[in-house]
Design brief:
The protein is built from four helices and no strands. It is mainly α.
């Protein structure tokens, strides 16, 4: 049961933080203008990356570990979903992050606007995946799955 709770807590924190970024922080960043958004992206990304990666890793490992102890397929699916979010971030989102952090990027350029829009869409996908993992774990814990 402890592994289930660790998985649920980590996944809930991951999903909540991701939802906040998707619905609040990134739109507010964009509302300040492209140049300001690019400037703010760096410090925000550096702080959030550590938090989000840690939560996804702990939640993923706890979910898989709970499944390995016979806690049901929902824990495995949720755990693997969190691990997949890490892989998605490294393979799909990281090139956009790197370009947004590149000091040669003109912060007021059309490329910067395109990168920020792409990042928002990709992060929204990550948010949805985290929410699904959280829902699966919650339903499992209340016995609905």
């Amino acid at each position: 049961m402890l592994l289930d709770l660790i998985a649920l807590l980590s996944t809930g924190l991951f999903a909540g933080a991701a939802l906040y970024v998707t619905l609040v922080e990134h739109p507010a960043r964009l509302q300040c203008g492209i140049a300001a958004a690019v400037t703010e992206f760096g410090p925000s990304y550096r702080r959030a990356a550590v938090l989000q990666a840690s939560l996804a890793a702990v939640g993923g490992l706890a979910g898989v570990a709970a499944w390995s102890r016979g806690h049901g397929p929902a824990t495995l699916i949720a755990g693997l979903l969190l691990v997949a979010i890490i892989a998605f971030t490294l393979i799909v989102i990281l090139p956009t992050n790197k370009r947004l952090l590149d000091p040669t990027l003109d912060p007021g350029s059309a490329e910067a606007a395109t990168l920020l829009a792409r990042w928002g869409r990709l992060h929204a996908f990550r948010t949805l995946a985290g929410a699904v993992a959280f829902l699966l774990l919650g339903l499992h814990l209340i016995g609905a799955l």
